Amino acid sequence: MYDGTSDWDAFRLKYRRFVMEQDMSVENAMQYLSCVLTGRAAEFHASPTCHSPPCSLRDMFDRLESRFGFRPERSYRYEEFQDAYQHIGETTLEWADRIFRLASGIFHSPGRPRMAQMEIEEVLQ
Questions:
Q1: pTM
Q2: Per-residue pLDDT tens for 100-123?
Q3: Which structural domain range is residue 22 located in?
Q4: What's the structural domain count of the chain?
Q5: Residue 3 belongs to some domain of the structure
Q6: What is the pLDDT of residues 57-85, one digit of tens each?
Q7: Burial of 13 (0-12, 13-18, 19+ CB in 10 A)
Q8: Quick check: is 2 in a domain?
Q9: What domain of life (predicted)?
């Protein structure tokens, strides 16, 4: 499920894997996309501007990504990471998840996952 506020890249990867594993046709993949969108993402997907003119699955993903997949500049994300602190009432697990998301956005290296992990560990020391 994707609501327009959670991690776009994680949703896109999970969706594509599922569609490939199920060997879905393009038509079924479009219908499945309609079923897994909720909240703002579902509203955007249902809007006439999103379907005008009719488009392919790739075009639909491009439209959704342009709307919900915004990624701030790396320097801004690094500053946000540096200024992060545990909020009052935030559990240690919630804090760890938030820090991991921030760090992953900064040190994301698709071709070098081990290097990205080492960079994150170095910053967290």
A1: 0.55
A2: 877 776 665 444 555 555 555 665
A3: 8-68
A4: 2
A5: no
A6: 888 888 888 787 755 555 666 777 778 88
A7: exposed
A8: no
A9: Eukaryota
